[in-house]
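Q: What structure does this chain adopt?
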Amino acid sequence: MDNFWEFLKTKWWGQLICALLLYTIAAYDYWHIGMQERSYPYVSLHWFDAIIYSKLGKWGCVSFWGFFAALFTFVGVWNLIVRIRYGRNDDDT
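A:
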């Protein structure tokens, strides 16, 4: 699995797949935290999201995942533009 993750991070289309995954996590956090805020007097999250939620709230969690998704999107699109403009391959250094 580590080789697959490294493979995804080095290809432009893999970076866009990672961005899509991170956007999905951000959307799920928004939905999940919103449902808990409306239904229960407390919010129960995993430890990582709980730390962010305790300091920054729901939008802090969504923004955290959204930031990394935007970063992966930018890098993936940049690498695609470089590939199209200069004719470079993903395997070229």
